[in-house]
Amino acid sequence: MNKSIAVIGAGSWGTALAISLSGKGHSVRIWDVNQEHLKELAENRENKRYLPDIKFDDHLEIAYTVEEAVRDAEIVLFSAPAQHFRSALDGAIPYLTPEMVLVNVAKGIEQKTLMRLSEIAFEKLPNAKYVVLSGPSHAEEVGRGLPTTLVAASIDVALAEYIQDVFMTDWLRVYTNTDIIGVELGGALKNIIALGAGISDGMGYGDNAKAAMMTRGITEIARLGVTLGAHESTFSGLTGIGDLIVTCTSMHSRNRRCGIMIGEGMKPSEATKKVGMVVEGMFTTEAAYQLALKVGVEMPITEQIYNVINEKIDAREAVTSLMTRQKKHEKEDVFRKS
Ligand SMILES: NC(=O)c1ccc[n+]([C@@H]2O[C@H](COP(=O)([O-])OP(=O)(O)OC[C@H]3O[C@@H](n4cnc5c(N)ncnc54)[C@H](O)[C@@H]3O)[C@@H](O)[C@H]2O)c1
Ligand SMILES: O=P(O)(O)OC[C@H](O)CO
Which residues bind substrate (predicted)? Predict the structure, then answer.
């Protein structure tokens, strides 16, 4: 059955999902803090800034206030960048009702509190019907209807199944999961490794270096994730290794593109600006670095990327530091446990 859906954040991902949902016949209203951007969306009936040449259909309306977007919605989808999720939620709260299902697609950790986004939501709304939607999914491909998979994660499996039904199309396949911690952390932390993969590419290193970055990257992501309560197996699924692969290898990736420019010698702040859309890894690196210190987990790649993007060392020094670390067994963590 068709639903009424509010989308909060009309960037590339919010727009791509709004196009997909409205294409399925759902009634979608999209809102953004940037009023100028909303006017352009209404005038052009497409998102020329982020997803040019993909026209909106009649089921997709532009809302000029949060209230207008959220009023009578059955589902409220948050697609603002992770550092803005708290303010996006605060803005919507006066208009939310307990029946509304909240879906968050942002991938990050709040820098100032080190909280996962679901922790923010449950702190404010302890009984929220809350679902995380994540997975290997570039907006540029979803907007064009290219085959994609996602995972709807919730502590309530029935709720995850509800969102699975609402979002699923013949080309957008949605799985469910109840490991909300693992799904959130996989989506957030892969952006750090994608920055690293981009830096490696930008420095002119080859496929060997990138394969190492990705494989050792997922190892340290899982190490932190399991310490924070996630299931290890989640990191070998779509929201773990799946999302890591797509982000580290695609030219659509904002994180990888930013990394490439840094690897080529551009200042990190300049590279971030040049991407022109949110580069979540630039915030998540700091948060993950602090979280790892707090819980005593070793994250050598994250630590070096933290050093590079904060201009403490250059990328070549970071590579030397990673390559000349104390030698170890590949599965050292497993040996430590047994
Ligand atoms: N772009 C993708 O392919 C993709 C895919 C999966 C997940 N994501 C995740 O989705 C999130 C958004 O990414 P994006 O690429 O769409 O970003 P973007 O930079 O393209 O757009 C972000 C939009 O959010 C708006 N915004 C900022 N604060 C807001 C607020 N408080 N309320 C409402 N709108 C607000 C901005 O004005 C902007 O239009 C990120 O966490 C990203 O990791 C992106
Ligand atoms: O473009 P990126 O690097 O923000 O990645 C987008 C999505 O998270 C890929 O799944």
Answer: 107, 254-255
Asked if residue 50 has its Cβ within 6 Å of ligand 1, the reply is yes
End-to-end CA distance of the chain: 51
Which ligand is located closest to the Cα atom of residue 140? 1
What phi-psi label fits residue 145: left (phi over 0), alpha (psi between -120 and 50 degrees) or beta? left
Question: What pTM was estimated for this model as a whole?
Answer: 0.97
pLDDT above 90 covers a percentage of the chain that reads 97
Nearest one of 180, 184, 8 to 109, comparing CA atoms: 184
Instruction: Specify whether 191 is located in the same domain as 282.
Output: yes
Q: What is the span of the domain harbouring residue 253?
A: 181-337
ipTM value, please give it: 0.99
If asked whether residues 290 and 204 sit together in one domain, one would say yes
In the numeric block, which tokens belong to residue 36?
């100028």
* Catalytic (active site) residue 312: no
Exposed/middle/buried for residue 290 (C-beta within 10 Å: 0-12, 13-18, 19+): middle
Q: Which of 178, 199, 227 is the last residue of a domain?
A: 178
Amino acid (1-letter code) at residue 63: A
Give the whole-angstrom CA distance, residue 52 versus residue 46. Answer: 7
**Any binding-site annotation on 24?**
no
Question: Are 78 and 207 members of one domain?
Answer: no
pLDDT tens by residue, 194-223: 999 999 999 999 999 999 999 999 999 999
Together in a domain, 174 and 190: no
